[in-house]
Amino acid sequence: MNHQFKGSHILAELYGVSHIIGSESDLKSYLEKCCKEAGVTLLKYDYAAFDNGGYTAFTLLAESHISIHTYPEYQSIFLDVFTCGNANTRMIVDRLCDYYLPERTHIQAIERGNEDFIK
């Protein structure tokens, strides 16, 4: 039996983010729009706010996940976007960069799968 799997995993570090933009509902709406444009199915969204003004947001996708961890004291945000199939993972990261407007980024893309795992 052959099993084909294809996934794209992007780790992005956003630096020089002068402020966390928008409210929780704004972020959720923006993520919903990004998911639709990227061809992924948003199953669940969760959000946790912290005393320092930062937050963690997590989006469970049928195709995997998006996580956002903010560190306002360091003007930094870390993104983890993983999708399988033909989803446009990079577009999600690019749209989140448009949303947060960092001064600089460090982005690592990892292509996962594409091999016969069961032979």
* Helix-strand category: alpha+beta
Main sheet overview: 6 strands, antiparallel
Q: Please trace the helix and strand order, writing H or E for each element.
A: EHEEEEHE
Which CATH architecture is right? 4-Layer Sandwich
Beta-strand portion reads 35-45%
- What is CATH's topology name? S-adenosylmethionine decarboxylase
Helicity range: 10-25%
Unreliable runs: none
CATH superfamily: S-adenosylmethionine decarboxylase
**Care to count the β-strands?**
6
Name of the top-level CATH class? Alpha Beta
Gross morphology: globular
**How many domains comprise the coordinates?**
1
How much is the radius of gyration in Å? 15 Å
Number of helices: 2
Q: In whole angstroms, how far apart are the ends?
A: 6 Å
Oligomeric assembly = single chain
Overall residue-averaged pLDDT value: 90
- Spatial strand order of the main sheet: 2-3-4-5-1-6
Observed structural traits:
119 residues; alpha+beta; S-adenosylmethionine decarboxylase; 6-stranded antiparallel β-sheet; 2 helices; globular
Describe the structure in your own words.
- The protein is an alpha+beta fold.
- It has a single domain (6-113), classed as 4-Layer Sandwich (S-adenosylmethionine decarboxylase).
- Helix content is 23%, strand content 44%.
- It contains two helices and six strands.
- The protein has helices at 24-38, 89-100, and strands at residues 6-15, 42-49, 55-61, 64-71, 76-84, 104-113.
- It has a six-stranded antiparallel β-sheet with strand order 2-3-4-5-1-6, with helices on one face.
- A hairpin with a 4-residue loop joins strand 4 (64-71) and strand 5 (76-84).
- The protein starts with 5 loop residues before the first strand and ends in a 6-residue tail after the last strand.
- The relative contact order is 0.34.
- The mean pLDDT is 90.
